[in-house]
Prior knowledge:
It is built from 15 helices and twelve strands. The protein is α+β, with helices and mostly antiparallel strands. The protein is elongated, with a radius of gyration of 30 Å. One of its GO terms (molecular function) is hydrolase activity.
Amino acid sequence: MQDAGSDVTEPIYIGLASFSDEPDHFLIYDWRAPISSIYYDDGVGEVTYTTPAGDQQATVHLKRQFQIEDGKIETIFDTDEAIGDQMLLNALSGESTTKMQSIVTTIQREQNKIIRNTSADLLFVQGAAGSGKTSAVLQRVAYLLYRYRGQLTSGQVVMFSPNQLFNDYIDQVLPELGEQNMVQMTYYQYASRRLPRFELETLQERFEAQPGTVQKELIDLKGTLDYFNVMQTYAKGLNQKGIQVRPIKFRGEEVISADRIKEIYYSFNENYNLGNRLFATKERLLKMLQSHVRSEMNAEWVDEQIENLSKEEYDSMMGDQEKNLSQIKKSTITSRKLL
């Protein structure tokens, strides 16, 4: 490869991981490095690749693909294409296993666009069965972990699978690429952890219930695009006016009025959407309630409550560690129900 404006032609080797003999002097580049996109996106000739410093121009004079097994070069292909057909055919004709393998050596141009996309907030991958959607998504996870190392960890990535068998099938791809596995679960497992106290109606129970005409019409209405659009408009409208709240009361007395809660809700930047605005309001209210707890700690009723604690209530507040009096008072106050 020859950079624009340079007379020097430099060989670039790409592999599963980078390898250098001294700092910033790479003998082999990680397949996820910016310069490696040339291998997947372009053939021989003028190319452009993106780096942290901006787009770089270069000329590729030769593309050669190596197949190495047990430290020996088995096959060499010269090609003008992004990924040579022979290399792809060899991969497809290999023995199948019970585990999905990485596709670093056979990533196609369309797949590479999916893998390296960092501009889309939401990225939908659509294709026929067996077209490489899952493989591309897993390679994308490895790429994002590489690009945002220090900001993103595998524990922050969740893969929702249709069943546990599928989890077992794909669980070796990231370790093969040198990354720790991400969190893998079915949506049912996720929902059962987040909503442990809710009983979900099964499809059979739903059909056996046979909802009446009005209920069926309501269900149908909620599934329409018009209903969705109305709800979106309503949610946006709540950023200006119309939010309905109840005051927060403690021991029958109003601690934070409804008007004060509304004032807090509408005090945030207009760019806050409904979810962010509700979350920010909640955080502000929690801080105000913590301040109220501190002010109540010396009240007479707190001392009376502590004196009247049963052994079970006392043990529940103490837990496994000793607490001082102020901690017990705080536990006594916060254990009271806020209405």
